[in-house]
Amino acid sequence: QKEVEQDPGPLSVPEGAIVSLNCTYSNSAFQYFMWYRQYSRKGPELLMYTYSSGNKEDGRFTAQVDKSSKYISLFIRDSQPSDSATYLCAMSPPGGGADGLTFGKGTHLIIQP
Amino acid sequence: EAEVAQSPRYKITEKSQAVAFWCDPISGHATLYWYRQILGQGPELLVQFQDESVVDDSQLPKDRFSAERLKGVDSTLKIQPAELGDSAMYLCASRSRTGGNTEAFFGQGTRLTVV
Fold first, then answer.
1. Which of B1, B92, B94, B95 should one mutate to test binding to chain A, selecting the residue with the greatest count of A CBs within 10 A?
2. How does pLDDT run across A28-42, given as a tens digit for each residue?
3. From B9's CA, which of A8, A43, A68, B37 has a CA 20 to 30 Å away?
């Protein structure tokens, strides 16, 4: 079992829908959680960064962390065709040494106009 | 806007040849990572630097891969000899410091094709 599990999709939804993307993880040492968006043949772009359980909102994006369930989510409201991309969840332990990010496989999202 | 710079963007090399990638992190960022991303997968960590020191290279295939960050600023990742299975996107990321509670920013990557 991989440390971070993420459904690769593809996930196809109509424009304007609410999108829910999820990851589960097994390593309880993870403390910092990130969501990246990656367009084809580009580097990952940081969307959301959270620490500890709870919600964080930024525009149309909401990140949710439930450490007790080892489950994180990204919600996209009023989805747009330009949101079509691969969404990667990533997480890292507390720092002070080796704290590289561990990624999920990425979910390929398609927003249909 | 500050960004992580990588070059080249694309590289095609023949099997058994040597290849090198360069990364210049965001100014002032002490922590630098190299990741490899195979098509359809998430990035996987190869090596982490804190300033000029290697913090984690446990996943770096040391028989053919090497990485350095001599002055604690820019970094080079080398593969010698390249194998067909090395075809992937090589990503560099930087963070202002190790310690976890800072964002990691990625460059645009170098897409390597080994033929």
1. B95
2. 989 899 999 999 989
3. A8
